[in-house]
Structures are given as C-alpha cells and as structure tokens.
Amino acid sequence: MADIGVSISGVNLKNPVLPAAGPNVRTAKLMLEAVKGGAGGIVTKTISVVPADDPRPTIRKIGTRGLMNCETWSEIPAEKFIEDCKAVKEAGVPLIVSIGYKPDEVARLGKLVEEEISPDAIEFSTHYVGREVEPLVDIARSLRNAVSVPIWMKISPNFLNIEELVAAASKYVDGFVAINSYGPVLDFDPENPVPLLGSDYGQGWMSGAPILPIALRIVHQISSVQEKPVIGVGGIYSGVDAIKFIMAGASAVQVCSAAIQYGHSIYGKIAAEIEKWLDEHNLKSIDEIRGLYRKKLAERKVFLQKPTMTIDEDKCTGCKLCVSRCIQGALYMKGDKAAVISENCIGCGFCQDFCKFDAMKLA
Ligand SMILES: Cc1cc2nc3c(=O)[nH]c(=O)nc-3n(C[C@H](O)[C@H](O)[C@H](O)COP(=O)(O)O)c2cc1C
Predict the structure, then answer these.
(1) Are the C-beta atoms of 126 and 178 separated by less than 8 Å?
(2) Residue 328 CB coordination number (10 Å)
(3) Is 37 near ligand 1, meaning CB less than 6 Å away?
(4) Which CATH architecture describes the domain 303-362?
(5) What is the pTM of this model?
(6) Over residues 198-224, mean pLDDT
(7) Which fold has domain 6-296?
C-alpha cells in the first residue's frame, strides 16, 4: 500500500488531507469531529483581534458542488477560541491555527497563540488586506518576527502579481496555502430573485468545484517560482481532485466546501481515494507525482505553425462524435471513418475531447 504520510515545514501529517479554515472547524468540538472523520491534521477557523459579526444568511449553495458565502472570520473572541483549541492540541493531532489580518494584529495574535498552545504551525489569511505586494509581504515579515513556529501564508485568488508576491514572501514564510474563496460573486433563483445572502447586495465569496481550475493555476504558479511547500485548496471533493493538486505542485490539500456539503467523513474518504489511486498506478508515495504537470509542461511540443487535426484511421471507430462537435465544418465522414478538411480546420483541438479512442492528434 502507498504511504500517504507527508511532512510540511516540519509538520508531520499521517495523510495530506486537512480541513480548510471555515465553519467546518469553527469550534474545538467540530475540529475533533474532523479528526474522527480522518483529517491528517487540523487547520482552524480564522481568528482575529475583534470577533466577526456576519449578516445572515451566510452560506448558500450555488449549483451542485459550489457555495457562496459572506462569512468573514471567527465570531468567537480570540482568547476563548485559543483556550478551546487546547483540547485539540491535547488530542495529539497536528494543529495549525489560522489568524488574520494586519501586521500588528498577526504579530499580537501569533505571539498569544504560540505562548498559549504552541501550535504545529500558524496560517495567516490575506483575504481582507488589499492586493498590493509590499503590504502583504509586511504581514508575513511581521508574523515571522513575532513567532518561531512555522508560518503558512494563505493566498487569495484576486491577487494580480502572485509570482512576485510569493517570491518576495517566501523569505519569511514556511509554506503557502492556495486559494481562499473567489469573488465577490452574485447568484439568485430567477423564479424568486431575492438576495441569497445577508451581505450588502447579496454578494458573496465563491468556493467549491467552480474554483478548482483557478486554484490549480495558482498552485502551479506558486510552486514554479519558489521552493517552499504549497498546500492546495479549492473545489476538492475527491481523491482524484487532490491528485491533480499534487501534480500541480502541492504537498497537501485542504477541504472546506465538500466538508460543509458532505460532512466530516469527507477528509478520510479523500485520503483513502488518494491511497487507492496511487496503488492502482503502482506508486509508493505522493512524492512520485508531485509537480508532474511542470515536467509535462517542459516536455510539451510547441507548434511553430498553426497545426491541423489528424485522424488515425486504425483507431477511429466512426462514432461521428467529433464530426457533430466541429463548429468549423472541418470534419466529415469519409466512408466509415472521420476525415479532416484541412482548409477549414483552425487547429483549436476541441474535437479531441470527444474522441474516446485516442484517434485524434494535432500535427
Ligand atoms: C463558509 C466559509 C467560510 C470560510 N471562512 C474562512 C476563514 O475564516 N478563513 C480563511 O482563510 N478561509 C475561509 N474560507 C475559505 C476556505 O478556507 C477555502 O479557502 C475556500 O472555501 C476554497 O476551498 P473549498 O472550495 O474547498 O471550499 C471560508 C470558506 C467558506 C465556504
């Protein structure tokens, strides 16, 4: 059986699946339930110097595997929250406490958290502190100067200069977590077009499956420009989703929306699916696939001239699916095989996604 244990900045996890900061880890009781559900460690809901007071409703569903929320940080005062977390620390599971937001606030809270519970790491959220690189690096520096435990910087998807930011911040932090929820976004039911959330105009932050490709892109960017470990988060519902993040460069993953939708057992389920996937591919650990996407990217053939689709007649079964999907009218049936009208083909590659027989290639 594959070994799915990982070590991230000295934090040893029995498996790479952690809860992400959110209502699923709002209290010590819920954190302990996440442990029972198979989480490899615990990341807490974010605490800040002032308890939050969020307008209700705070969490609504969009689509089948998506959420929109206007929850900010913990509504529990930091001191009480820290006191409660002692029970989680005593349970012997790696504990990562999430804090926010400004430089002086994270320094103050970080020191308090370290003195009171000595967590295995501290994660800091950068969600409500603008998008400029320097002020964000200031937060990392301030926390670094205040504590000696490993610190993880959580990246928001709205940042414009992610590579510049992480390259500068990696001097101060021990790992990156990507991404926070995306937004603001808006959704409502056309049969009853009332605001779904209690925020100003019903807007919220989107999470779940719709943000997975954004998260994957950012994990790739972060792991491409610096060496510190990256923890992927955004739209993970299955072991295969997690495997994609690891291939994009992640060392572990976090899960929030799937836990809200399907309960605490999701962590153990995803961990078991990762192990199964590795076993099925005869791999011994996730180290063997970490960053595989970057390797494939380096090997990719770049077309110097516009390519045209080609069809391998031996593999084509004549199912016509590709022909029915080509909006350019570049594919037709020549007898019982698909064929290409090269002057109509723009080399977009879309038809490949409908061929189940690997008969189509751009050349
Ligand atoms: C209701 C809700 C509350 C959240 N609260 C926090 C929070 O307190 N701190 C934080 O860093 N991220 C918070 N997040 C973001 C999640 O930790 C995570 O980054 C994001 O939802 C993407 O992961 P997912 O698609 O698995 O939900 C919250 C997300 C949701 C849905």
Answers:
(1) no
(2) 14
(3) no
(4) 2-Layer Sandwich (3.30)
(5) 0.97
(6) 98
(7) TIM Barrel (3.20.20)
